[in-house]
Amino acid sequence: MNHYPQSMVQIRNWEYNSLSSIIDGDADIAFLGREYYSGSKEALHLLPEVIDCEELFRDTPLVYLRKDHPLLKEPWNLETFLRYSHISTEYDKRPHWALDDILAEHGRLRNIAMTYTSFEQTLFMISQPNHELITCLPGYCVHYISRALPNLVTLPLPLPHSVSEQLDISFILLWHKRHAYNFKVLWLRETIKNNVNQFMQKNGH
Length: 205
Hints:
Layout: H1 18-24, E1 29-35, E2 51-59, E3 62-66, H2 78-83, E4 86-89, H3 98-105, E5 112-116, H4 119-126, E6 134-137, H5 141-148, E7 152-156, H6 161-164, E8 169-176, H7 183-202
Parallel strand pairs: 4-5, 4-6
Antiparallel strand pairs: 1-8, 2-8, 3-6, 3-7
């Protein structure tokens, strides 16, 4: 079944007030990323009691940059990573994320030169010539750049595993507990899960 009878699906981008929309009944379900880092304002354990969620996959952020970027000729370490300016992508109107929180704990700071509101905008800007900017985004974006921006490459974050694993992102489905047995929401959940699973299998995950 690929449609729900007599229904209309309206899709919106996640915004700072989207969680309130789920709680207030103005939206039925959400697909989004939440951070594993315990000190994050977007950590999974901070979701309200009235919210249920299900993890669809776990993602590890990567560094994205052009294939001809001068950074690639240098030793890949934290000093090199921090010496170059970054493009950040806003989430809930915040240009910083768990990486910045962890760096701040050690007295370090990224130089964020630009901020965009979507991963696609950020990647498009990173792909442009004549600049030395880099960015950090979820690892699943490699599938997007392989098709749309083949002049980009990735590097792992130059951090010990014990630190980098705290930066993993949990991509979840989220809904209000009142919808636990709502047929429409159950159909939406299964449809999204199936589409995500097909994408992951197709791309070797």
